Amino acid sequence: MSVSHSLLQYQDSNGKVYEGDLYVPRTTGMRKLPGVVVYSAFRGITEFEKEKAKSLAQEGYIALAADPFGKGVRPTDKMECFGIVKPLVSERIEKLKPVILAAVDAIKTVHCIDIQKIGAIGFCFGGLCVLDLARYNIDLKAVVSFHGTLKPLPDVPLDPIIGTSIQAHHGDADSHIPKEQVDEFHEEMRARKADFVFSSHAFAEHGFTEPEADSFGLPGVKYNEKAAKRSWSATLSLFKEVF
């Protein structure tokens, strides 16, 4: 299926401007289509996130690669990226929440979107973002986290997660996410009575979906083709189910 690409400008509740990459199937007709927001890893929007959004559009979904940093902010140095991401992660409710909610609001403005059928996926830092969306009980059908941080929101009641199906794809050899965090995530999801699936992919390390991961120069970060393909297949299956 051919798709169109455009830039979508939007604002968060603080008035900060963002610019995401929007992909829409060309043959929408008069039908309303489901939408999926793609939240990036620590580098922000790269060709990887764009390709994932494009792939989703080819499956018949409207897809937005969300901008986590702000319009015109496209760092290429990894230390600069970490410098931007760190305060967002350290203050998830005060600083990160407005950023991730803005992208969901933005995709709902797209022509032909079915606002009752919205989902989200995220990689690494983006995985944390989509799990937080579920924790906030945003009206999403499904969220999928790939090698994302699993830590619960600090000092927040474990309210039930209602109406959002969750997939969390984790590398069994991920040295960046300790076993204690994995166990804590399971306990949290059970306490929240969440509809969740946790997949631990054998021998996969952190960043296993990213084909360029081996070039990042980060210990414990490595591409794993088998885990990447299996987790993506499971994602498409989930969206087919919930949409």
From TrEMBL:
<dbReference type="InterPro" id="IPR029058">
    <property type="entry name" value="AB_hydrolase_fold"/>
</dbReference>
<protein>
    <recommendedName>
        <fullName>Dienelactone hydrolase domain-containing protein</fullName>
    </recommendedName>
</protein>
<dbReference type="Pfam" id="PF01738">
    <property type="entry name" value="DLH"/>
</dbReference>
<dbReference type="InterPro" id="IPR002925">
    <property type="entry name" value="Dienelactn_hydro"/>
</dbReference>
<dbReference type="InterPro" id="IPR050261">
    <property type="entry name" value="FrsA_esterase"/>
</dbReference>
<feature type="domain" description="Dienelactone hydrolase">
    <location>
        <begin position="27"/>
        <end position="242"/>
    </location>
</feature>
<dbReference type="GO" id="GO:0016787">
    <property type="term" value="F:hydrolase activity"/>
</dbReference>
